[in-house]
Prior knowledge:
Layout: H1 4-11, H2 20-48, H3 50-57, H4 67-88, H5 90-121, H6 136-147, H7 159-178, H8 182-192, H9 207-227, H10 232-267, H11 281-297, H12 300-330
Amino acid sequence: MGTAIVANAGATLPYQLPGQRTACQIVWALSAAALAVLLAARAGHWLHHRDQARAHLLDPAVAPFYGCLSMALLAVGAGTLVVGRDLIGEPAAVAADAVLFTAGTAVGLLMAVLVPYLMVVRHEIDAAQAGPAWLLPLVSPMVSAATGPLLVPHLPAGQAREALLLACYAMFGLSLLATLLLPMVFGRLLTAGPLPLLLTPTLFLVLGPLGQSTTAVNQLADVAPLAVGAPYAGALGAFAVVYGVPVTGFALLWLALATALLVRAARAGMGFAMTWWALTFPVGTCVTGAAGLARHTGLTAFAWLAAALYVALLAAWLLAAGHTLRGLAAGRLLPR
C-alpha cells in the first residue's frame, strides 16, 4: 500500500509534470505485482504453517498489522481505476477494482471487529503499551470510505449509487469514532516518553486516519451529486471543507511532532527496520486529502501543500524501498 499510494497520489496532484502519469503507471504496476506476491506468500503461510499464523493473531504486537491486508487490497484497487485503466482498459479496471474493493472492505470490517475483540479478551496489554499500530485495523474502513467513491459513477443510477455512497459514509463514521483511542496514544507519549528507536517511524501512522478521512469526505463530495439530490449533495460538499480543513491542521501539527521525534531517533542511532514503511502510506493520505481540499476550495495554498507533501512521500518511499531491497539481497529480512 505504501507503493500504491505513490501512484494514486501522484496521478491526482493538482500539478502534473511531463511523464508524471507514465511514472505513476509504472509504480502502480509494481504495487500490483508486490500485492500478488505477498498474497501468495500469506496464503501459503496459512496453508502450511497455520499454527504460526494463528499465533500471530494472538500476539498483541503483530495482530494489529492484519489491518494492512485490507488497506493493500483497497489501495491497489483504487490505483487500478485511477492509473491502471490506461494500461488494461476501463472495463477491466472497473472489474478489478470492484473485486479488490469488495475483498478489502470485507477483510477490513472483519479485522476492525476481530482485532479489538482479541485485544480485549485474549491479549495481555496495558495502557503503557499503547502505540500507533493499534490504529491499523480501525483505519481500514476509512480507506474503503475513501476509495469506494471511485466506483459510484460506474454503478447504475439510483439505489445502487446511493447505497454505496451512504455505505462509505457509514464506514467513515465507524472508523472515525473508533480511532478516538488516539488520545491514549498521545497520553502514552506524554507519560512514558518517546517510543523505542526502531518504533519511532510508527508515529506517522497517526496521520493515516487524519489524511484518509479528509480524502474520504472530499472524494465522497465529488460523487454525491451523482447519487443524492439537493439539499444533501450541497451539504456534503460543504462538509468536506468544514471537516477537512481543521483535520488537516491537526495532521500538520502531528507531522511536525512526529518529524521532530524521528530526527531525534535518527541522531540517537536509529537503524533501518520495516517500520520505515510507516513513513509512506500515511503521508500519502495527507497528499490526497490536501489535493481534495484544493479542488473544493480553489486555494493555491492547498495545491502547494499537496505538492510539498508528495515530495516528502517520494523521499520516504525511496528510502524505505532502497533499504528493503538491500536487506532482501543481503538476506537480513527473510527468515533462514
